Amino acid sequence: MMADKPAPKPGHFLPGGEGEQGADSAESKPAVAAPLAAPTRRLSGEAPPTPPQLSGSRIDSKRLSGTRLGPPPPDDPAAAAYRAVFHPEPIPFVPKKRSKALVAAVVVAALLIVGGGVAFAAKVLTSYDDFVANPMGSPSVRPSDGATTEPTRKVTPDADVVTKNPLYTAGKLPVVRCQEPAYRPTSKENVRSYYQTLIACMDKVWEPIVTKAGFEFRSPRLIVFDEGQETACGVQKEVSSYCPDEQGGSVTMPWQDLMDHYPTHKALARADMAQSLGFVYGAHLQNLTGIFDASDNLRDTAANPAGQLEQDRRRALQSNCFSAVFFGAAKASFPLRGELLRQWTSLIQHGGDENTKDKVRDHGSAKSLTLWMNRGFASTDPATCNTFVAAPAQVS
């Protein structure tokens, strides 16, 4: 029975073992080295058989055809290919020689980049410091030696603009032939044509004086408004006015009251047209020479309302004086005589603040108005119209 047979010895069923079948099984054959699995665990105390060792790089071609384990021997034809793949010769390191010109160019470029960055940062930081110190001002250039520098352009104080203006030293107005415009206030278009003609004549005589004083001359824009119309100077009612707007200054003139009064008071309407335009044109001269704005600034810093009103009167009385300077220079051609002159004088004498509806003392009393109008008319010199240096009693 199979139970009586002894257990097969290790390797019994392997090729060449005792269990191999066939005619050659009884014959002894040389042992052939073959890869073995790890020894199985033994229950008995017998030591496991020693696995066969590989005796070279080749294995029986019948068993493992073409299989190679490990490097071939040196004399093998495949040895050179093996070395080329698995042990190539190291590539020698040969340092390249850099062009001196190239190195110099790289260094110069780096210096330029670094230097430009430093200069840019210095400029930005300087501007930032100036802005933080004075947000409303312009950045100033810091001197390298640490000393402070004065602004390149000096600003004239407002008090000097009104009291020492170059217009006062530009000289007298020359005698000018400027006749009264022939347009009568019987329509809006006639009133517009009257003012356009008189403005052109005033421009002709005042432009050389303003330019000589060092200022740019611009003719004022004319607006003839309807009652209650909104203009560059706001909503207008009956009175003429001036405003220094973006167009270089606008004179705004009424026309409806003139047309109503002309049929019964012809000389008064004509005198009113000439005097009203002369007054607002005088304000335009103040705007061109900086007196208008400077006077506003002085008014804003007055100690009390009385001081503000006094500043208003000085400016208004000067405007009327400039008007009289022009008509004094044109008296030979502009017919201020007879009934027209009497109506002109009446307008001045009754044109003071005390005769207005609201009694606000912002344009001057009849006495002060007469004083400055007579001065301007007699002298034809803007220097005599410096109301900003006059005693308070003269600008009441």
Structural class of the secondary elements? mainly alpha
Helical residue percent?
40-55%
**Beta-strand level of the residues, as a percent range?**
under 5%
Helix-strand string: HHHHEEEEEHHHHHH
**Overall pLDDT level:** 76
Give the N-terminus to C-terminus distance in angstroms.
157 Å
Tell me the number of helical segments per DSSP (H or I, 4 or more residues long): 10
Strand order of the largest sheet: 1-5-4
The strand count comes to: 5
Query: Main beta sheet, described?
Result: 3 strands, mixed
* Shape summary: elongated
Our Rg estimate from Cα atoms comes to 57 Å
Poorly predicted runs of 5 or more residues: 20-48, 50-69, 99-141
How would you describe this structure to a colleague?
- Helices cover 41% and strands 4% of the residues.
- By secondary structure, the chain is mostly helical.
- It has a domain at 159-395.
- The strands form 2 sheets. The protein has a 3-stranded mixed sheet with strand order 1-5-4, with helices on one face.
Q: Could you give the topology of this structure?
A:
Blueprint: H1 79-86, H2 100-133, H3 158-163, H4 188-212, E1 221-224, E2 230-231, E3 234-235, E4 241-243, E5 250-253, H5 256-261, H6 266-288, H7 291-300, H8 305-329, H9 338-349, H10 366-379
Parallel strand pairs: 1-5
Antiparallel strand pairs: 2-3, 4-5
Helix pairs in contact: 4-6, 6-8, 6-9, 7-8, 8-10
